[in-house]
Fold:
Amino acid sequence: MIDAREQRVLDLIDANHQEVIDFLRELLAFKTVTPSSESVEHDEFIRHQAFIKEILTELGFQEIDVWEADAAKLDAPPGSGVDKSRDLRNMPILVGRLPGAGEDRSLILNGHYDVVPPGLLGSWTHDPFGGEVVDGKIYGRGSNDMKGGIAAMLKALEFIGRAGLALEGDILAQIVPDEEASCMGTLAACQRGYTADAAIIPEPTNMRVGTAVRGSMGGRVTVFGRAGHAEQPQPHWQEGGAVNAISKAMRVLEGMAEATEQWHTQPDKQHPLVPPDHIIPTVIHGGDWSVTIPEKVEIEFDCMFVPGTKDKRAEIEEKLDAVAANDPWLRENPPELDLGGPEGWIYPAEVSEDEPIVQTALQALADVGIQPELMGFGSLTDCVHLINHSQIPTINLGADIESAHSADEFVTIEQLIDLTKTIALSIMRWSGVRESADA
Ligand SMILES: [Zn+2]
Structure:
């Protein structure tokens, strides 16, 4: 049920759709594209955060902390995915606090402001940074993932204030970089000590409450053979003959396919909200001369796994051992597994459906007129650090995910407004409201 104060906020949002749209368009104009491996040599990220800082100051935020993380100095416990070699300069993190009028529960609103590259411009029919509005959709890289979410959460706060209401609990806004590459922006904020009683991340979730994400492990398997002249007869390998590493790599590729198939039906890999584990070869390099029997093949893979997985490395090693056990050469020359160090993977995460923040968000969705449902992500979001590092019950909740990372990425105005309302209701109910003194 929506009470009279809440209705004032919803009415304000309805009377001011254009303001939400215009704010999102301003955010889209910043070209905050995540670099793959190089460093950021321009000031788009810095200008974006200066703009956000101005907005937060107008909203009454205090203690606005803006800093650049040094990946080399971050703690890197297992599962944190820290890449110490990544250059995070010129990509500031911002955390601001809106002090509550009382002592009620505190809330983090977290959004990443980096976006994936636009890709082939020829595939777009709209300017990726133009924020064009056509037929009820706002187009642009990040409109969906997830500057639309940032616009919704900050505008929700603004409308609560303009309705003459003050929140009882503290609100922390975390506007972070590098989610699309490393998730170290949010990890740095967690390690700096910022915490709250719950967190909302408006990542796109098709307007459902996202409570589970899979963990991620990337790595490389190196398969060895023995070089020899490809056009000369070869003795048996036990008599010193050549061994084709590409042929041996086939066994490893088959083993990966078998593992994925096995996990597909294995009872402990079944989760109500996310798909079962997989391991998929994604890059392969092998051989170096067209008339030399190849002596080495490198297979890079992507592996995702459900919450509840105890030791993914051990599961992969076991599978590789089984492959090697079935081949006399591989038994003596086992493939090597490289996961980029003990920290080279990211933990999965989930929160219970019974968590109050989950129930708060489900009820808010229902009150906005949207079927309240839970969902899970096949991939992961920054919630992994808020949940695993800081033990903060965290949900994802945002617009349709279908156009994320695609050409002509968009968010519909309808969903942007519904999201603003849903977040506004969630904030008010979580943190408590009172009539503000200066209203
Ligand atoms: Zn995202």
Q: What stands out?
A: The chain is about 30% helix and 20% strand. The radius of gyration is 25 Å. Residues 112, 145-146, 179, 203 surround zinc ion (CB under 6 Å).
